[in-house]
Amino acid sequence: MNMKKPPTSAPPPEAWGPSDSMRRLQIGIAGVMAVLLLVGLAGLIGDRAREQVAGEAAATANAAAAGQADAGTGAPLEELGVQPVTTPTDGQTPAAATVNAPAKAVPLPPTTAKVPDLEPDPELQRARNKTGQ
After folding, report:
1. DSSP state of 6
2. Which one, 30, 39, 98, 131, has the greatest CB density within 10 A?
3. Cα 83 to Cα 73: distance, rounded to the nearest angstrom
4. How far apart are alpha carbons 61 and 15 in whole angstroms?
5. What tens digit of pLDDT does each residue of 118-127 get?
6. What does the alpha-carbon distance between residue 56 and residue 44 come to, in Å, rounded to a whole number?
7. Does residue 75 come out as left (phi exceeding 0), alpha (psi in the -120 to 50 range) or beta?
8. Rounded-to-10 torsion of CA 90, 95, 101, 105
9. What is the mean pLDDT of residues 89-102?
10. SS3 of 53, please?
11. Secondary structure of residue 105 in the 3-state scheme
12. Quick check: 3 pLDDT over 70?
């Protein structure tokens, strides 16, 4: 006697109790408060950083203004060491001496050698030829 048992259905889900709803609400509110706290802290850090940069820029501008009175050459390439320093003649300013100085053209020998780093890679050329065929 083989009796089949009627199919049993899953037990009905338990109704959400008021304590569970309250717990979810508390977790949600705590999450929103945590995000607001982080955004507020990020704003404070950003404001402090802007104030610090503004203070440093003002200090740099003051130092640069004081340093300009001492330098006064008017030839930034000479100050950086890119161009040789010229001495002013006949009451000229250093900048005018640089502008009026005759340019010396130094002829460069012609170069036909290739720089090995700039030559095309033969493996790359072979790979391109394979994919193009």
Report:
1. P
2. 98
3. 13
4. 70
5. 677 788 888 8
6. 18
7. beta
8. 170
9. 56
10. helix
11. coil
12. no
Alpha carbon separation from 83 to 76, 94, 97, 99 (Å, rounded): 9, 13, 13, 12
Q: 12 or 125, which is more confident?
A: 125
Cite the DSSP H helix spans in the chain.
Answer: 18-71, 76-80, 94-100, 122-132
Look at 14-18, 41-45, 49-53 and tell me which has the smallest mean pLDDT: 14-18
pLDDT at res. 29: 97
Say yes or no to pLDDT of 63 above 60. yes
Q: Which helix (H) or strand (E) holds 117?
A: none
Cβ atoms 96, 116 nearer than 8 A? no
Report the mean per-residue pLDDT for the chain: 75
Give residue 104's identity as a one-letter amino acid code: K
- Rounded CA-CA distance 50/20 in Å is 46
Q: pLDDT at residue 40 above 90?
A: yes
What does the alpha-carbon distance between residue 93 and residue 79 come to, in Å, rounded to a whole number? 15
3-state SS assignment for residue 97:
helix
In single-letter form, the type of residue at position 27 comes to I
Distance of alpha carbon 93 from alpha carbon 69, whole angstroms: 15
